[in-house]
Design goal:
The protein has about 325 residues and is an alpha+beta fold. The chain is built from 12 helices and 11 strands. Strand 2 and strand 3 form a beta hairpin.
Length: about 325
């Protein structure tokens, strides 16, 4: 497999130009095989990029490679469906041990699965009768059964009354066709601790300040992590990953999805898709959007880059709240 060491360091064309080139069209045709599917894919991803100015700044190869990862899972690039996202993410220049640049600084598109994508892939396995994830509202969690240790709930039936109550936790559950059931519950406190521990794009104190309205408008661009913007959706994705990876049926598609979630892939000069060799953020996290806002200087707490639990990354985000 080709690596970045084998790729020429050069500025690549914008996606609107690159997608029309013979090399990219050949890659799409050879990968998808079906001409009709290739035409639909090209139209879909071109449309998705056209309406996202931040994505237009990304390296064209990472957009195409990321979209082909999504297509390989038969997921839609439409942000309205929320199955997966191509998230602009700034990568620092990379050098070998002798100081020779092997990859210039660039803005890359990171492939990020949404929680709806996890649900879609799980249901395709044909093993689940039910699969869902939801917020638990104040008064609905009744503690654990003293015999089984399983969480107990009493759900509020009136939707308007329920929506008005604060969220105290999250519950994901599934039932197989054979009747086996499993549910997992995390309190919001536990989820907050998880995010604060494993996402360097998230600070609990800063989130509390944001919710309390203590963040001035001039600093809102720092809070573009999805943990700030869509905490509940990030929590749902985390719950589904925890539940399915521990007790769910891991189909080939689902296994592949968990492996490539938050991957940065690109198209090498030989038209081979290669994946970023360095570890990227933990798959329960989502990286920051790049929209040309100023970078955070040394010593500032936010924003940081979401990283894996024990693996560092050299990526550096430039963020903005208006892109999602």
């Amino acid at each position: 497999m080709a690596t970045y060491n084998q790729m020429q360091v050069q500025q690549k064309p914008k996606f609107s130009v690159a997608i029309t080139t013979k090399g990219y069209q050949s890659l799409i045709s050879n990968t998808l095989r079906d001409p009709a599917r290739a035409r639909l894919f090209t139209a879909s991803i071109t449309s998705a990029v056209a309406v996202n100015p931040a994505l237009q700044e990304c390296d064209a190869g990472t957009i195409l490679a990321g979209a082909l990862l999504g297509e390989s899972l038969n997921l839609s690039p439409s942000p309205q469906l929320g199955q997966y996202y191509l998230v602009p993410f700034k990568q620092k220049a990379k050098y070998d041990r002798s100081g020779r640049m092997i990859r210039p600084e660039s803005v890359t598109a990171t492939f990020v699965l949404g929680y709806k994508g996890y649900i879609q892939l799980a249901l395709r396995s044909g093993q689940y009768r039910e699969l869902d994830v939801m917020e638990i509202k104040e008064g609905e969690y009744l503690g654990k059964d003293s015999t089984t240790g399983k969480a107990k709930f009493q759900f509020i039936e009136d939707d308007d009354q329920r929506d008005a109550l604060p969220t105290v936790g999250y519950m994901a559950y599934f039932e197989y066709l054979n009747g086996f059931r499993k549910a997992l519950y995390w309190s919001k406190e536990k989820m907050m601790t998880h995010a604060d521990t494993y996402s360097k794009a998230f600070s609990r104190k800063s989130y509390e300040d944001l919710m309390a309205g203590k963040v001035p408008e001039s600093e809102m661009w720092k809070y573009s992590s999805f943990w700030y913007k869509s905490f509940d959706d990030m929590a749902k994705k985390t719950m589904l990953r925890q539940l399915i990876s521990r007790w769910g049926v891991m189909s080939i598609e689902m296994t592949k999805a968990m492996e490539i979630d938050n991957a940065v892939a690109t198209v090498a000069d030989n038209n081979e898709i290669v994946t970023e060799p360095e570890p990227m953020p933990d798959a329960s996290e989502q990286p920051e959007l790049h929209t040309g806002k100023p970078e955070v200087g040394d010593g500032q707490a936010l924003p940081h880059v979401d990283i894996a639990q024990s693996e560092p990354t050299t990526a550096e985000p430039v963020v903005d709240l208006s892109s999602l």
